[in-house]
Amino acid sequence: MKTKLAAGTRLLLLIAAAGLIAVLFNPIWRIELNAPQYPEGLSLQIHANGLKGNVDIINGLNHYIGMKTLHNEDFVEFKILPYAIVFFAVLFLLSALLNKRWLLYTSFVLFVLFGILAMYDFWKWEYDYGHNLNPDAAIKVPGMAYQPPLIGFKQLLNFGAYSIPDTGGWLFIGAGVLLLVAVIVEWRKSKAIKPSAVAYATSVILLTVLFSSCNTGPEAIAAGKDNCSHCKMGISDIKYAAEMVTQKGKVYKFDDINCLVSFIKDKTVAEKDINQIYFSDFSAPHNLVKSGEAFLLQGGSIHAPMNGNIVAFSNKDSLTKAISQLGAAEVSWQQVSK
């Protein structure tokens, strides 16, 4: 069995190596913080060799709630990461130049293990950062932790934290994808698996990555845990709750449909950036129904937390039954949102 690499495989390795070198000059990850007092937002950018962005402002804010201040010299990762990236770039380059399939497979396994280790280390740092708080902090919320999300969105008091790969991170992921394609090509070439199986496996992997990275679905609303993104009050009764999901997958939760309407009118999120709006089903509160598919009632004996006095149902039968029980009138989302 031939063990030399195909010309296309070697090209993929060279491109992946170049991409990793580019990672050294771009931010790998970013955490964005949004709050009413910072409408322009705050940003923390994580590079291979340090932190950049609004580090000083974030340190000042975190001091009040007892979180550690961030200093580059406190992270051993910033001393190791640049060398690790260069190591893999050289390894990919050697795999292409030495033209050995076993070296390609070794590179792939090591790169995947490194990626898993890096994400675990990042999560571990976030956990320590958000849980190990100074007991003498000026602001203390019993039972509250401030761990940022590993990826995606999370509400932390009145701040919305959004965590996502930055340019360098996407280059790193892209290098991994190229490496995966190279491995699949070589497996197919060596007839280790059938071509049809290769095509199937590749399709599954790509679709999984696509849907996981583009997830813009709703999140469950938790009473007693989630806060309203408009009035900042805790959500105590999810029967009246609502939710907005942006095009990027960021989730805003509301204790009252009226708060959602006010939030939209404040234009905190541009209309073009809204992907979907959901309401809690009044008859089955743990179910969320899209605004375009919901049936709404307003007034009567409905007493929503912020006096919006609007509830939603997922079907017409439930709404009809509730009209007589609540003495309310049917309204449309278009009427309510004006």
Task: Describe the overall structure.
The protein is an alpha+beta fold. It has 2 domains: 207 residues; 99 residues, no CATH class. It is built from 9 helices and 12 strands. Helix 1 runs antiparallel to helix 5 and helix 3 runs antiparallel to helix 4. The longest helix has 31 residues. The chain is globular. About 6% of the residues have low confidence.
Sum up the structure in keywords:
338 residues, 5-stranded antiparallel sheet, globular, 2 domains
In short:
This protein has 338 residues and is α+β, with helices and mostly antiparallel strands.
Structural class: alpha+beta
Residue ranges: pLDDT <50 for 5 or more in a row? 195-204, 206-214
Strand order, biggest sheet? 3-2-1-5-4
* Range of helix content: 40-55%
Strand content: 15-25%
- The ordered string of helix (H) and strand (E) elements is HEEEHHHEEHHEEHEEEEHEH
| Record field, number of beta strands | 12
Biggest sheet, in brief? 5 strands, antiparallel
Q: Categorize the overall geometry.
A: globular
If helices are DSSP runs of H or I spanning 4 or more residues, what is the number of helices? 9
Provide the number of structural domains.
Answer: 2
Radius of gyration: 25 Å
Please state the average pLDDT score: 84
Distance between the termini: 70 Å
